[in-house]
Design brief:
The protein is of the alpha+beta class. The chain is built from three helices and five strands; from the N terminus they run βααβαβββ.
Length: about 110
């Protein structure tokens, strides 16, 4: 069972906006899967929320977010992309509960700077 929720957030945003967009993506993830009619997806989301709560925030470009969003649609990985209405509905963050956390080693941790 995946224990870490990874959030890819746009690196070109200021730190405070990155934090807000990451929260939006996590809320979207919980809304999509916490109440899912697909039992396995619901269990995975509820397990993360109730047992683990480990969150890793990483920085990515907008292009990387778009690419990953398309890629994740065809994968069985649970993910939720957030598009910010106040920014032309552009993608700002993706929350992912991966089967293989090592996939995210290529992105830089968001250090809040």
């Amino acid at each position: 069972m995946p224990e870490k929720l990874f959030v890819l957030v746009r690196r070109d945003l200021p730190p405070a906006k990155r934090a807000v967009q990451a929260c939006h993506a996590v809320a979207e993830f919980v809304q999509l899967y916490g109440f899912s009619s697909v039992w396995e997806k619901r269990v995975a989301a509820i397990d993360w929320v109730s047992k683990y709560k480990t969150l890793i925030i990483l920085k990515a470009t907008e292009q990387e977010l778009e690419f990953e969003s398309v890629k994740l649609k065809s994968n069985v990985t649970l993910y939720a992309a957030f598009r910010e209405p106040d920014m032309g509905n552009s993608i700002t963050a993706i929350a992912v509960l991966p089967n293989d956390p090592s996939y995210f080693k290529r992105w830089e941790l968001d250090d809040g700077k």
